Amino acid sequence: MRHNAFERKLAELVETEVKSLGFTFWGLSMASSGKKRVIRIFIDGPEGVNIDDCAKVSRQVDIVLEAEDIIPGAFTLEVSSPGLERRFFTLDQLGDYVNRTLDVHLAEPIDGRRHFKGKLVAVTDTGLEIECDGEPHRLDWDDVREATLVHEF
To answer: What mean pLDDT is predicted for residues 78-92?
Structure first.
């Protein structure tokens, strides 16, 4: 999964603050809403996280981002848990989800296919193997645009 230098720098800064508060930094995404950027931070903890945990992290990260002044213009900061249908930001995060269903979108199609939904069979040093409709597919993590867990009720 590719990230630009700005996103990497921002993620490193946020991760340091999240860890200092005793939580696990799950990931970060950015979007635009009009002229304002929306920065979404996902955190987790051994017992999960609640609204108070998210507020605590939001206050601390907001202070640091304002002090560092690395985000040009106005921004909105959102902090939440990764949720049941969590997005995966690193290949390492997939290890605990072998035999679970994933929804994977690639940046560029492979053999004319960009979307894969199926059971995560294995995680390697460079990618993952997913079984879709009985067929195994090996995907390089660098080709993945987005991978999310599919919660099954």
So the answer is: 96
CB 153 within 8 A of CB 143: no
Which of 79, 65, 75, 76 lies closest to 23 in space, CA to CA? 79
> Who contacts 18 (Cβ-Cβ below 8 Å, separation ≥6)?
24, 25, 41, 43, 57, 61
Asked whether 97 and 90 are in contact (CB, 8 A), the reply is no
Class of domain 87-148 as given by CATH: mainly beta
Q: Each residue of 126-144: pLDDT tens digit? A: 999 999 999 999 999 999 9
Q: What pLDDT was estimated at residue 4?
A: 79
Residue 123 in 3-state DSSP?
Answer: strand
CATH class, 5-80 region: alpha beta
